[in-house]
Amino acid sequence: MTRFAYIADSHNGADPMGYQQQKGYPQLLPDILDALVDHLRSIGGVDFILHGGDMVDYTNNETIQSGAGLFELPFPVHLCLGNHDLTTRDAADTWVRLAPQFFGNGTPNYTIERDDCMIHVAPNHWDDDAFFWEEAQRPHLRAEQVDFLTNALDRKPELPHVIATHNSVFGLPVEQTGMSEPFHVPPAEFTDQITALVSRYPNVACVLGAHNHLNMCVEQDSVDYVTASSLVEAPFEFKLFELTPTEMAMSTISLADSLDVDVKYDSDKAFVQGRPVDREISRDL
Question: What are the residue boundaries of the structural domains of the chain, listed by start?
């Protein structure tokens, strides 16, 4: 069995956070990571931690080195670069140079290969310039990333595969929010690009995203499209995945009780934490 923790949107260096769904406490990140490590140790550990992106709030040498230092944890950490991780044109190269331990093969696109599953990391782009975000919100995979994923998904078809990118593939359904329309909906072109790719590979069990700071699980054609709330927003949640060749389980765990701090929580936006169906998965593959 492969067991890994999935976290997202830690925004190290934010003062204060800009976009947030619940109140963000990026200044508590060291304490939150200590609580995360303590919890993971209490359950026997994990094989690795996958960060879904926006490890830092903006990119320069200082924030990347600071983030790398904070995430020097007792478990291997892998990173799917988010838009806030890519705020300079040389950001991807700088990440690989200063924090190569986060990337499997020296590039932002890589595979975490396990005996019982495959996890493919392909952070989406935002505009015409590769791995650079300024303002545009036009998520997409470039042709070379589609080729990377196609080749990776063709390998070991007998195992379950997981794809990780940064932008969410779907918006939150109205059943979760109570709103009249889906919330935080990505461009249809991105949804179509990802779902068209996934539809060709029945071995894809799950697509992981982040960016929206929301817990969500949308099931389509036997694939779970999952996003995670921000690790530094109350109540400081992460996801625990367990995968075998025949089963997948996910649970969502709050670290709030492990932190001796008073924090604000907007109960009017409790949909951020999701329904049971958004927080837990247990199914045969």
Answer: 2-284
- For 4-21, the pLDDT digits (tens) are 999 999 999 999 999 999
Asked if residues 159 and 245 have their Cβ atoms less than 8 Å apart, the reply is: yes
What would the mean pLDDT of 75-85 be, rounded to a whole number? 98
Q: Specify whether the CB–CB gap between 96 and 108 falls below 8 A.
A: yes
Residue in the structure block whose two tokens are 């697509």: 207
Task: Output the six-digit token pair for 238.
Answer: 């992460």
Burial bucket for residue 96 (CB in 10 Å: 0-12, 13-18, 19+): middle
Q: Which two tokens stand for residue 162?
A: 């997981």
Pairing of strands 216-220, 223-227: antiparallel
Measured CA distances, 283 to 50, 153, 201, 216, 242 (Å): 21, 21, 18, 17, 11
For residue 61, which of 93, 38, 101 has the smallest C-alpha distance? 93
Class of domain 2-284: alpha beta
Q: What is the DSSP letter of 231?
A: T
Full DSSP string of 101-137: GGSSSSSSSEEEE-SS-EEEE-PPB-SSSTT--SS--
